[in-house]
Design a protein that fits this description.
The complex is a heterodimer of chains A (225) and B (218). Chain A folds into two domains: 122 residues, NAD(P)-binding Rossmann-like Domain (Rossmann fold, 3-Layer(aba) Sandwich), CATH 3.40.50; 91 residues, Alpha-Beta Plaits. In chain A, 34% of the residues lie in helices and 27% in strands. Chain A contains eight helices and eleven strands. In chain A, the strands form two sheets. In chain A, strands 3-2-1-4-5-6 form a six-stranded parallel beta sheet, with helices on both faces. Chain A has a five-stranded antiparallel beta sheet with strand order 7-8-11-9-10. Chain A is elongated. Chain B is an alpha/beta fold. Chain B folds into two domains: 117 residues, NAD(P)-binding Rossmann-like Domain (Rossmann fold), CATH 3.40.50; 84 residues, 2-Layer Sandwich (Alpha-Beta Plaits), CATH 3.30.70. The chains are: A alpha/beta (225), B alpha/beta (218). At the A-B interface, helix 4 and helix 5 of A face helix 4 of B.
């Protein structure tokens, strides 16, 4: 795919690096000459020094041929205008804007020209919040639209589920245990499988049931420790 | 009228002071407190230190009640963002946007924003000044600049005669002649040097009006 990135800060740079590894064609637009030089030295791709909200700079980046424009500068208003120019003037089929102010995520999607707005603040705070509230449960994968996640639970010595049969756990209905890692063994559990200290249990759960799962598997002492 | 002005730079503060002096209810938003001090003593409105692209700051300025919003910072992208919020989220009736780079304006036609590019205005004005005699002041342009309303003072008896002939042949249409401190609305049958004339003329005939002054020794 042909991808144009506006803003070569840390986010822009690492995204460009990842996309290039996956054999996408990437053009970067960056205002600061010093940053441009840095990127040119490290990445083998086209870097244009200029304002990504300027029509002629965007034309230089051959935006009319691009599949996606991703605006990642540190200024929300610049990201908004870059996306709007891309979508309305150059008819780029997909635009993504980074927002630093959380409430701009919803706003940008309403104003038009921005297909997806990504709030880095929101993403980081969600991750940290989970880490804090759900110790010993690691979220491996979130399914954005289905509201379901795959999580891994570590069973401690003091787990209330220790030495219990799964059938006796009173698991909520929308929570399924996929498999248990015990040492080098992988166990596909059934009702009479018993849980041992040191087990790692992989399960699918609704986000709402994560806390319930935690209460069944992890002692209060170790989750508040 | 209740209007919100974003940006208290040279343009914003001059506008706020003028509108406030005319008795309008004005709120000025600027993120730099020191810039808000540019507002003249005639300014009686309210000031808010805040970011004009932040919905919370606009709500503090009671944007729901505003008749107009003027985005007048020196930053095109901020102006366009504030303006879109005003129009799309709060349905403000009149939204005016100051723009430096006219190229990005065409994209915003569908947003029902009224844009003013100082760059374009200044360029047009300078080009026109160069093509027009210094003695002629252009008061207005009508119909996409097909016609102009002009004002000038007649220097010599000869120019008086030439202008009378232009009036007679329908090239120049006088609206007002100001002579000896008295404004006269009726079409003149006589003109004297020193008379100030206001009238309309087609832009294509401006050359003939310019010629009135080119013969004059400088």
């Amino acid at each position: 795919m042909q991808i144009v990135i506006v803003g070569a800060g840390e986010v822009g740079y690492s995204l460009a690096e990842a996309l290039l590894k996956n054999k996408h064609q990437v053009t970067i637009i960056e205002k600061e000459p010093a940053r441009c030089n840095g990127v040119v030295k490290l990445l083998n791709t086209v870097v244009i020094q200029g304002d990504g909200t300027n029509v002629s700079t965007l034309a230089d980046a051959e935006l009319d041929k691009a599949d996606i424009l991703i605006a990642l500068t540190g200024r929300d208003q610049d990201n908004l205008i870059a996306c709007q120019l891309a979508s309305k003037r150059f008819h780029v089929p997909r635009t993504i804007a980074r927002v630093t102010r959380r409430q701009n995520k919803k706003l940008f999607e309403q104003l038009g020209g921005v297909d997806t707005a990504v709030s880095t603040t929101e993403i980081i705070s969600t991750i940290v919040e989970e880490e804090v509230s759900l110790k010993n449960i690691v979220t491996l994968l979130n399914f954005k639209d289905a509201n379901v996640a795959i999580v891994e639970v570590a069973i401690g010595e003091d787990s209330p589920a220790r030495d219990k049969h799964i059938v006796d756990l009173d698991l909520p209905e929308d929570c399924v245990l996929i498999c248990i890692f015990r040492g080098n063994e992988v166990i596909f559990p059934h009702g009479l499988t018993s849980i041992k200290a040191g087990d790692k249990i992989l399960s699918v759960t609704t986000k709402k049931n994560k806390t319930l799962l935690k209460n069944l598997m992890i002692s209060e002492a170790s989750s508040s420790a | 009228m209740y209007a919100i002005i974003i940006g208290s730079g040279r343009v914003g503060s001059a506008l706020a002071t003028a509108l406030s002096g005319e008795g309008n209810n004005i709120v000025v938003i600027d993120s730099h407190e020191d810039k808000l001090r540019r507002l003249g003593p005639e300014f009686t409105g309210q000031v808010i230190v805040g970011d004009g692209t932040d919905i919370a700051a606009l709500q503090e300025a009671k944007i729901e009640e505003a008749d107009a919003l003027i985005a007048a910072t020196g930053d095109d992208n901020s102006n366009l963002m504030s303006a879109q919020i005003a129009k799309k989220m709060f349905s403000v009736k009149r939204v005016l946007v100051r723009i430096k780079d006219p190229n990005r304006v065409s994209v915003y036609k569908e947003y029902d924003l009224e844009t003013v590019s100082a760059t374009t205005l200044a360029a047009q004005k300078l080009a026109e000044m160069l093509k027009t005699s210094r003695e002629i002041e252009i008061l207005d342009r009508i119909g996409n600049n097909k016609a102009k309303i002009v004002k000038f003072e007649l220097p010599t008896p000869k120019t008086c005669d030439t202008l009378l002939r232009m009036i007679g042949s329908g090239v120049f249409n006088p609206a007002l002649v100001y002579v000896n401190g008295k404004p006269e609305l009726r079409p003149p049958d006589k003109l004297v040097p020193g008379a100030i004339v206001v009238g309309s003329i087609l832009s294509e005939d401006m050359k003939r009006l310019n010629r009135l002054f080119s013969g004059k020794k400088s």
